[in-house]
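Exercise: predict the structure of this protein bound to FE2/S2 (inorganic) cluster.
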Amino acid sequence: MHRAFLRGTGHSAQDVRRYPVIGIANSASDLSPCNAGLAHLVDDVKQGVREAGGLPLAFPTISISEPFTRPTSLYLRNLMSMDIEEMISTAPIDGVVLLGGCDKTVPAQIMGAVSANKPAVMLVAGPRPVSCHRDNPELTVDDAWPLCDARRAGTVDDDEWGELEANLNTGVGTCNVLGTAASMAAVAEVLGFALPGSSFQDATSPSRTEIARATGQAAVAAARDGRTPRERITLAALENAFRTVTALGGSTNTVIHLEAIAGRAGHRIGIDRFDDWSRTTAYLANVRPGGTHTLPALAAIGGVPRVMHEIRADLHLAERTALGTTWARALDGVATTDPGDVLFARPEPGSLRVLRGNLAPAGALVKLAGVRSDVLLRHRGRVIVFDGIEDLNARIDDPGLDVDASSILVLRGLGPVGAPGMPEVGHLPIPAKLHRAGVTDMVRISDARMSGTSTGMVVLHVAPEAAVGGPLAYLRDGDEVEIDVAAGTLRHLVDEDELLARTPVPVRSGPARGFGRLHADHVLQADEGCDFDFLQDPLVAEPSEHQAPAALP
Ligand code: FES
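Solution:
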């Protein structure tokens, strides 16, 4: 019956007897500009599958776009992973090629593929071209943040704002710095889904066609060899992926997605282990947003495998690439020409730090890449608390706001349950009056996330979040908070009895029906990866081997 139905769509008798049958999960969409270019690569993937003897069958999936999904694309990541899992599981296919790109599409596809556990290879969209603007010869998406601050402070006029609208994105593809999309593309490569060296090749370059064909061929090989995703998701592979991301200075979102991917394979990483891996890995990439170079410069010196080569002493080299070879063998073939200053070891290792304390009993994250003032790494200040985005927008630029450069801005009620989905708003803007006075960075604290393209002294993913009664819910304007990144602590200095006598804010009831109800009832906190509890592998309830016990200060 399968063959008969395919014959009806024009496949020949020979065609429908090809083996293996490779599904192509296509997330190209007009509503996801970062993934839009994937539509043009489907035929190249199909050609690769055919060249290797397989039968390619493409199918559409949910596509989630960071800029076009409200309140945030993480809200729909688990839904997309369910779509991917069920499409792979229920279709008569032997393997799959996953076409993803924008921030949450790549982890959603990996999560779904691990749960479905049929051979899977991934083709990521690649970054969009670097542009230019007035006297800036290399305009990239992270330039948007200081330009937004300047616009709010009144130093960017309407003409320049209009130019920026035209210049910021001059082509399809993912964000063109080491943001979440690039970080997760690197993860896909290290975990053996995407082909080695494929992640940072420009979305519009001719090399994408070659990569697409090679990906189709690799999917056929993976299906014939019976290499399944779950066998690739070992703790060793997850460690390799995170060490590579922290060497790159990549996104804080990686922690959430890697924990969710681990959970689908029965592992729990735990934020203490992330912290340990970060503190023992050199931070190498001098690439935006934490450095000065662009992604094409990193691609030119060898991309992800080149960075892995630099930290190979810290990696588990018996893990496998998407081609089925060991990373030891793959890295032996990496050209090690002089990287110039695109790669250099900072004095401080790792680009991410975990903080704990009475304000974040289950942890919080800070990205060191791009923090503009070391002074802020150890800081005590009085908080100004904003309850949600509307409150923030209404008051942040109020000339009467009682704020100075030593203040700590707190944004709460925007965690996994609260927003819902932890929108990327934790990078609170600098109040306009301080921006005009020359302040470029301040301590900010939130239970939300921030874009991987953002930088600054921003403490994110505070857990438990305010909406489920975490300590953040009890703060009031004027309370003192102390942060010490070197010591890994985040504490409020309010008397505990006084704090607990307060009424927590906010109290949320959540939606009454539909996906929103499902999300509110089952989403896990940030330190657990924000997956739905019922989607994790049952084994995850057991702590993974070597799991360090959580030490609460
Ligand atoms: Fe899609 Fe950045 S908004 S990759």
